[in-house]
Amino acid sequence: MSVELNALRDQIDEVDQQMIKLLARRLALVEKVGEVKSQHGLPIYAPEREAAMLAARREEAEKQGVPAQLIEDILRRTMRESYASEKDAGFKCLNPELRPIVIVGGQGQLGRLFARMFRLSGYTVKILGRQDWEHADELLQDAGMVVVTVPIHLTLDVISKLNNLPEDCILCDLTSIKSKPLQAMLDVHSGPVVGLHPMFGPDVPSLAKQVVVYCDGRGAEHYQWLLQQLSMWGASLCQLRAEDHDHGMTLIQALRHFTSYVYGLHLSKENPDLAKLLQLSSPIYRLELVMVGRLFGQDPNLYGDIIFSSEENTAMIRRFYQCFTEAMTIIDEQDKARFIESFAKTSQWFGDYSQKFMSESQSLLKHANDAIHRG
Ligand code: NAD
Fold this sequence. Notes:
Pathway: Metabolic intermediate biosynthesis; prephenate biosynthesis; prephenate from chorismate: step 1/1; Amino-acid biosynthesis; L-tyrosine biosynthesis; (4-hydroxyphenyl)pyruvate from prephenate (NAD(+) route): step 1/1. The chain has helices at 2-40, 47-63, 68-88, 109-120, 136-140, 152-160, 179-188, 224-232, 242-270, 274-280, 283-295, 300-307, 311-332, 336-350, 353-370, and strands at 101-104, 125-128, 145-148, 170-173, 193-198, 211-218, 236-239. It is an alpha/beta fold. The chain has three domains: 3-86, Chorismate Mutase Domain, subunit A; 101-240, NAD(P)-binding Rossmann-like Domain (Rossmann fold, 3-Layer(aba) Sandwich), CATH 3.40.50.720; 245-371, 6-phosphogluconate dehydrogenase C-terminal fold. Strand 6, helix 8 (224-232) and strand 7 form a beta-alpha-beta unit. Helix 9 packs across helix 13 (311-332). The chain is globular, with a radius of gyration of 25 Å. Bound molecules: nicotinamide-adenine-dinucleotide.
């Protein structure tokens, strides 16, 4: 039997090696695509092309007895690689006349990412770091655009120092909250102003499909090229009023980070053996643990600043706390009927999204399971 098995395994190894060669060929082609897109100023992410290509491959795969989802998984993973490598070919510069871009906080995590993207697009980038304020006038005097990306609690103070920018200079920021920084920028500078919030961390392989929220400040016609440049990097733009952005972030950021923080804090007090928990965990628990644990691998100042940034956040967290306390009475009273009733009501509220989320999470869980190695 082992001879038979070994012969089959040898053939599988050979097929895998062919797959590697084919992938190498595909990546080389993608590199050329990156160069062409860069020359012609085309965005790295083309949703229609991606959808049409996936639909065609799914159909072809099915005809050959290959599960459609298998080819889609392989291609999506390959495309992620492609977007990252296409990015390295650089991007067409949409505003070649722009004077230097000064990134205040450009040595920070997000600042470095944006400095790299602007340089890949042919712009001259200068960094104004914490120690550079003595020479700030020199750095800022010919700035075409200033990007503020410093820790949230320092942002208003830093913006207030930008009171002598050239009139036509664009002033923008990347802060995770928007109302106060946008107002501060409008107060300090009379030229074009726009607030940006990249809805991703600095560890993304490329900006393909990543969301960037923008809040118009003043002189929108002067920074359209910037929005187009972000699209060319693959980002999906979302225009919002600063207040609406901050309101949305009470749930998307403040409450989520706070509940993860409390969960992690509680876990640390319970002090279970994490290795054992992982050994026992279902894919969904592993994902949950990973999502909570990753918070504690990051800068507490960033999350603290986000959570403490508004009264609205505090009010939202307090309402969640009340909801938790009310839900606790169901447990205290061992009232299973009430539990089922409130569960059904909530499920009704989610409506069709429940099923949508079921299938989306199934695919995530399969990926999480694939990544596990149980030695
Ligand atoms: P960071 O701490 O990594 O970087 C901040 C940089 O600012 C550092 O290099 C620091 O030396 C510099 N700095 C501090 N004080 C300064 C001053 N007075 N003058 C000039 N530079 C100064 O922080 P980060 O994670 O890159 O976050 C920066 C901004 O990006 C924040 O507003 C944050 O809300 C936003 N943001 C971060 C993320 C993320 O995941 N990291 C995501 C979206 C938005």
